[in-house]
Amino acid sequence: MEKGIIFSIEEFAIHDGPGIRTNVFLKGCPLRCVWCHNPEGISPYPQYFTKKDERTICGYEITSDDLANQLLKNKEIYKYDKGGVTLTGGEPLFQPMFVIDLLKKIRPEIHTAIETSGYANSDIFQKVISQLDYVLFDIKQTDTVLHKKYTGVGNELILKNLEILCSSDIDFVIRIPLIPGVNDTKENMLNILSRIEGAKFLKRVELLRYHKTAGAKYSMIGKQYNPPFDVNRKPAIYNVFESNHIKTIIL
Amino acid sequence: MNPRISHLRDYILNKEHHVYRRSLTELGIANMNETFAREGVHPVRRSAESLSAMLKMEKPIILPGEKIVFTRTIDDIPAIYTPEEWDRIKKEHYIHERGTVCNISPDYETTIKLGLDARKNEVEEKLKHLSVEDVEGEIFLESVLICISSLQDLIGRYEVYARSIGEEDTASVLEAIKTRGATSFREALQLLRILHFSIWEASNYHNTLGRFDQYMYPYYKNDIEKGVITSEEAFDLVEEFFLMCNKDSDLYPGMQQGDNGQSMVLGGRDMNGTYLFNELSQMCLQASYELELIDPKINIRVDKDTPDEIFERGSRLTKKGLGFPQYSNDDVVIPGLIRKGYEKEDAYNYVVAACWEFIIPKYGMDIPNIDAISLLGCVRDCLDDLGSCKDYDSFYKCVERKIQAEVDRICIKHKNLYIIPSPMMSLLMAGTIERARDISLGSKYNNYGIHGTGIAPATDSLAAIKKYYFEEKRFDYQTLMMAINTNFENNPQLKELLRKKAPKMGQDDDYVDSICTVLLDSFDKALDGKVNERGGIYRGGTGTAMYYIFHANNLGATPDGRLAGEMIPANYSPSLFINQKGPISVIKSFTKPHLVNVINGGPLTLEFDQSVFNNDESIKKLGMLVKTYIKLGGHQLQLNTVSKEKLLDAKVHPEKYKHLIVRVWGWSGYFVELDECYQDHVINRIEFGL
């Protein structure tokens, strides 16, 4: 049986896939996005977390059986609420064997979704998405150099997996975080559009505006938040998707 | 909202109509009680004459743009007894709250339909056939006639005034309903306004509005079908009627400003299985949404088959942060009422009282808030016996005995109840004319309701004792008692264990939740077979009203890790120390007990941060959550949207938040007008963010 490290299970998630969902946050992420708002999800290991002078451990090991049983407890509720479970993080594909094992145990009773940066080996990506009902796929930047500059990694794998996703038969959503002065250009939006246009199972695009409360958790894990952009500036919104008949929501 | 309503709303919120108010002394009607006492006037007649004097002194006022008239111009209600008389009565009787008829659901429908003249004839007819020995009956019926005539007289003066300022339409409406029943939606609303106005003026309070969307619907439908009004015009009138409920409400008595009991119930299923939500129900939700005022307080009767759309509409209103709609579940409430002896037809017609107690319109003279038992207090009181209990079951038996003893003690208290008569309210309740007896003496249903405070902390305390003391033996009796008696000062580690680590109701943990099921069943069982002096039964409930403050203030430290005097949650809600798993776990836990057995009412309250509802999709999902609670068998649900930052700021800068509305225990009020202890409680409640 596989074991994984998670740092939170949150009920009544209403922004991460259809219906009312439960989000499972998996620990560990290969990216280092400068705007990351879940910095406690980056390290793959449990770590201290201090909130209001109270120190707790963020992250714990759990077996796929235990987690599956916890999630299955609410399978009826997910049916009532046309929802399910969304795996997020961190980067869930960072613990692929655990994810695959878990999905096997909770499907098909539970509608399953993943929120991913798409940064993973394509074999793994393909294998995981074949076990899913829904994918929330993040795209930050189509330019490889800029991607590396702001997230610490290149985007070759991500773009390749995006191609796989676009030609698959799985419902998916494209999520674009809009970071002021980093990726909120019309050019970037048009480039993203050209890569997703025509995908049959694309449900919509979600534009997630940067919010300055994103930095709140850094001090709690003993880190400093020094983003190389103006946190007080509102990101520019170039909604090139709606005009190309792709449903778009701005969150 | 059209400009007329918008102007009227500003006018009322700016309290401009307060300039017309005069005091009792100014009007020379402050001391009628002395005359009554001197002349030995019968109490029923005193009530009628007092109301009559008030109505005579009311000055017809029409606010700019008003179509539905009647404004209070007297700022107080005179007492009918002298202080000496009242002291004597209090010595000899049990007095509930202020002593006047309150918290019932009047039958406006009959009088709106038949008209005041027809009601007068009915009373006169009864008088003619009354046996000569029935002196009480005669006084009562004559008193009702005084009320009707005085009311007709004031309507007449309003009519003359309306005509004198060129308000011909209003004058015609008043002229018509002075004598006969309403024939149009506007007439029906005007007569409803007058009847509602008059019971407040008769010193009755917590005067609910009942199933407005049902009893007003025939007038609405008829007007629309005949083309008398458009639906836009009808909507304007609904909005205006809602505004009227906020016009004099600062004069209505309650525990706090806002606690005035103007609840309205929409929807519900009838005995044939038809769901009764209609265009008028929808207009009520919309009016409330647009006006953003605390009255009337909206309740929606729903069940497992209620269309999703209704829950969505309700959620849109929830987003406004007014603290309503509140939901009640017909699938649980109706069988629960029938179980307690209510006739099927009446149970299907249930409404909520001022806060959430389930009552029956027209026929119910229940006192659903006569008292409260502290369930957490019962658990604490049994700690002395804990040392001699060999296992959890024997300890729980002590708790059960304690609950029984408390219930026995409480039920004895309500002997020789006295309620100040109200011939005016009597006119609006079924059977009073036929019986020739005042409603204060009772009606078809005379049941008493007992709130149960501290349900979740009592459950948590029992769970902690069961798990840590009996099963895991983590501490011995002396250790626990030392900690409780020193308010945990000697043992902060134990406090942390009990407060933070121990299982809590609301985490979807059967271990704890099943304890609550047993606890509530014990509460119900303790009340079983109790009969009050009016022949009514006792009903247990999950509400707290303000008792959650009283009971917590006087209670020492408890085994859930709570310190002496520390708050407990209001109504049927999780502990304030719970390690939240989320609202799904909360609703699962709180729907496990047999809620059909605790039918006095009292909602689960869920608090949400305002950020949750930032788009239509999330509002829809909130509606789904509500429906899930109903499907799982929840009885009643209240949802609040608050932002903690906003509330904290409002405490510091009240001037910036004059119109900020929050839900307190069973009613919504203006935050800045609440006492600090209630403000703090609202701030400290558990809130779900994202």
Quick structural overview:
By secondary structure, chain A is of the alpha/beta class. Chain A contains 7 helices and 11 strands.
Walk me through what this model shows.
Chain A has 251 residues and is of the alpha/beta class. Chain A has a single domain, classed as Aldolase class I (TIM Barrel), CATH 3.20.20. Chain A has seven helices and eleven strands. Chain A starts with a strand and ends with a strand. With 690 residues, chain B is an alpha/beta fold. In chain B, helix 10 packs parallel to helix 13 and helix 13 crosses helix 14. Chain B is globular. Chain B starts with a helix and ends in a 6-residue tail after the last helix. At the A-B interface, strand 1 of A face helix 28 and helix 29 of B.
Topology:
The complex is a heterodimer of chains A (251) and B (690).
Chain A: E1 3-13, E2 21-26, E3 47-51, E4 54-58, E5 60-63, H1 64-72, H2 75-80, E6 84-89, H3 96-106, E7 111-116, H4 122-129, E8 134-138, H5 144-151, H6 156-166, E9 171-178, H7 186-196, E10 202-209, E11 248-250
Parallel strand pairs in A: 2-6, 6-7, 7-8, 8-9, 9-10, 10-11
Antiparallel strand pairs in A: 1-2, 1-5, 3-4
Helix pairs in contact in A: 1-3, 4-6
Chain B: H1 3-13, H2 24-27, H3 32-39, H4 43-57, H5 83-92, E1 94-100, H6 108-114, H7 116-128, H8 135-164, H9 168-179, H10 185-201, H11 212-215, H12 217-226, H13 231-244, E2 263-267, H14 279-291, E3 297-302, H15 308-319, E4 326-329, H16 330-339, H17 344-347, E5 351-352, E6 358-359, E7 367-374, H18 375-381, H19 383-386, H20 392-413, E8 417-420, H21 423-427, H22 432-435, E9 448-453, H23 455-471, H24 477-485, H25 492-501, H26 510-527, E10 538-541, H27 547-553, H28 583-590, E11 604-609, H29 616-631, E12 636-642, H30 644-652, E13 661-663, E14 668-670, H31 676-684
Parallel strand pairs in B: 1-8, 2-3, 3-4, 7-9, 9-10, 11-12
Antiparallel strand pairs in B: 4-12, 5-6, 13-14
Helix pairs in contact in B: 1-13, 4-8, 6-10, 7-8, 8-9, 9-10, 10-13, 13-14, 14-15, 15-29, 18-20, 18-23, 20-26, 23-26
